[in-house]
Amino acid sequence: MLTPIAAAFAVALTFSAPVPTLADEFPPPVEWSLGVTAIGYQAELDDCHWTRMDFDGVVPIVGAHNYCGGAIILDMVPGQIVHLAGGSVDGTYIVTGDRQVFPGDDAIQATSGLSAAVMLQTCYWDVAQGMRLVTLQPVSTQPRDLSRIA
Prior knowledge:
- This protein has one domain: Sortase (Sortase, Chain: A), CATH 2.40.260.
- The protein has helices spanning 4-14, 22-25, 42-46, 72-75, 107-111; strands at residues 31-35, 38-39, 51-53, 61-63, 81-85, 91-101, 118-123, 131-140.
- The chain is of the alpha/beta class.
- A hairpin with a 7-residue loop joins strand 7 (118-123) and strand 8.
- The model has no long low-confidence stretch (mean pLDDT 85).
- Helices cover 19% and strands 30% of the residues.
- It has an 8-stranded mixed sheet.
- It contains 5 helices and 8 strands, in the order H-H-E-E-H-E-E-H-E-E-H-E-E.
């Protein structure tokens, strides 16, 4: 027969809490998928395309108006994954940072010091806050099938 202390110890060993797994501590990263459907500037943005824009001395910028799906850029945080297809920026990227910029800013000055292979851009809902740039670095340049994107 076990003493009360030994019995309590045996019960504690029998009913111990489950050991957390790595998956419990590190959930899978959030992933976004974007299909770049135009290369251009304001006219293409106004037609609600995800648009690749090229400015001298700046990496490609892919943007969309916030009301045309671009609002997802406002929710992106470092460490999340972005899959791009189209616009010659095909690949899988990781979000590495962001910056607030304003219409009329010089593109080279506005992006100075940012490290990115591609940037994403959309306007904040409060236009006085300007626009948000999100920096992306490649994880893979293998295209991903984004045919299911609406």
